[in-house]
Amino acid sequence: MQILLVEDDLSLAEGLQQALEHEGFVVNHVTHGKGAIHVVETEPPDILILDLGLPDIDGLDVLANLRKSRNETQIMLLTARDSLQDKVSGLDQGADDYLAKPFEMSELLARLRVLERRISTSISNTITIQNISLDTNSLNVSINDQAIDLSRREYMLLKVLMQNAGRIMTRDRLESQLYNWGDEVSSNAVEVHIHHLRKKLPPEFIKTVRGVGYKVDSQKSS
Ligand code: CA
Questions:
Q1: Which pTM does this prediction carry?
Q2: Which of 58, 90, 120 is the last residue of a domain?
């Protein structure tokens, strides 16, 4: 999952970025509203975490602008304003959720998991396909209930493939789900992680779609 964090409080932003990356999200950060609109229009994230009090334009104007252009990114408002009016107008203008500062990280994470479930085809925090289960809450992956060890990026890669089971994921899309703007990425990074991941999973679980990308087959629950 790729998150764009729009927050002008740099120490808060840094703390959030670290905590969210630790949970397996890819996080890019901007401080201004206009920059946020530009990024969402050109390179839409899965989830936008949007502060309301920004240096240039109000977060509510960012929200209104994106919804007017029918952008469907999930939007979580983050704000020091705790008035009912702000909350109501934020939700009325198309925000998906709203969290008042100060907040507990655990609450933000739980709410992000709700947004994630809306985006993915899964209705719970555990995605199970064939004999493989991935828990987006505990970050555990198991095969036949036996936990396996994955690196952070292997976990992120498997998660995005399983959340999009049945869909072909291009290399570019996978790369944007693994790395943020500041990361140096080698041209075959996705292939390398796929290679390592495949050694830990049943053969053929991750399918190559030649010249396009990769996919995991969806499986109707029996
Ligand atoms: Ca602010």
A1: 0.83
A2: 120
Range of the domain at 167: 126-221
Based on the fold, state whether residues 96 and 59 are members of the same structural domain.
Answer: yes
pLDDT of 82:
67
**Phi, psi (5° rounding) for residue 8?**
-90, -10
Looking at residue 82, which CATH number applies to its domain? 3.40.50.2300
Distance 24 CA to ligand 1 centre (A): 25
Q: How far is the CA of 79 from the centre of ligand 1 (A)?
A: 7
Model confidence pLDDT, tens digit, residues 108-142: 999 999 999 888 766 788 999 999 999 998 999 99
How much distance in Å is there from the Cα of 51 to the middle of ligand 1?
Answer: 6
Termini Cα distance of the chain: 27
Query: In this structure, are 6 and 101 located in the same domain?
Result: yes
Calculate how far, in angstroms, residue 184's C-alpha sits from the geometric centre of ligand 1.
Answer: 29
Q: Output phi, psi for 221, to 5 deg.
A: -70, 140
How many separate domains does the chain show? 2
3-state helix, strand, coil in the chain (%, to 5): 40, 20, 40
pLDDT, one tens digit per residue, over 163-208 is 899 999 999 999 999 999 889 999 899 999 999 999 999 989 999 9
